[in-house]
Design a protein that fits this description.
By secondary structure, the chain is an alpha/beta fold. It has a single domain (5-163), classed as 3-Layer(aba) Sandwich (Rossmann fold). Helices cover 39% and strands 15% of the residues. The protein is built from five helices and six strands; from the N terminus they run βαβαβαββαβα. It has a six-stranded parallel β-sheet with strand order 2-1-3-4-5-6, sandwiched between helices. The radius of gyration is 15 Å and the shape is globular.
Length: 166
């Protein structure tokens, strides 16, 4: 499997448990899940100045192959960092994987940050096999769709889920 550096964006107050679970899936040999986490590159304290934090986050984004955003109940309301991270990822043309913590396989317009609603992004439920599939495959699909000037939300067909045992 190719190395895919992942940047993960999420609500640190309410969705940290899901982020930590993704790291646990990676460490646990029972899961077919590879999560090369760019957040491990350098640590920044929450008490750092906003400019310092954003500078560090931008370095991490520059080291990323894919942008993963965990979409929970409050994600769409977070502007200071989450919206900024999404904007930078879009400017950098990073493939975006929107992971629905509510389990939906498609975009959830009620929870999805408005900036992502029309962006080229694949929307998947929070589950190791489909997230791993998206991390492995979406960068290639994203590149193809971009070259064809296709935009908007994308979902995997039911056949992909069947193939993965869902």
């Amino acid at each position: 499997m190719a190395y895919t550096a992942c940047y993960t964006c999420f609500d640190g107050d309410t969705d940290m448990n899901c982020y930590n679970l993704m790291k646990a899936w990676h460490k646990n040999g029972k899961f077919n899940f590879t999560f090369d986490n760019v957040h491990d590159l350098e640590q920044v304290r929450d008490t750092s100045a906003e400019e310092t934090i954003k500078r560090s986050l931008r370095r991490r984004l520059n080291a990323s192959d894919v942008f993963v955003v965990l979409i929970g109940k409050s994600t769409k309301y977070l502007y200071k960092f989450v919206r900024w991270e999404i904007e930078v990822a879009m400017e950098m043309n990073l493939p975006i994987i929107a992971i629905n913590l509510d389990g939906r396989r498609t975009i959830n317009n009620d929870l999805c940050p408005p900036i992502l609603r029309d962006a080229l992004a694949v929307h998947v439920p929070f589950s190791p096999d489909i997230v791993n599939y998206a991390i492995t495959n979406w960068p290639y699909s994203h590149r193809d769709y971009k070259s064809q000037r296709i935009s908007g939300s994308y979902r995997y067909n039911d056949s992909v889920y069947s193939q993965l045992g869902y």
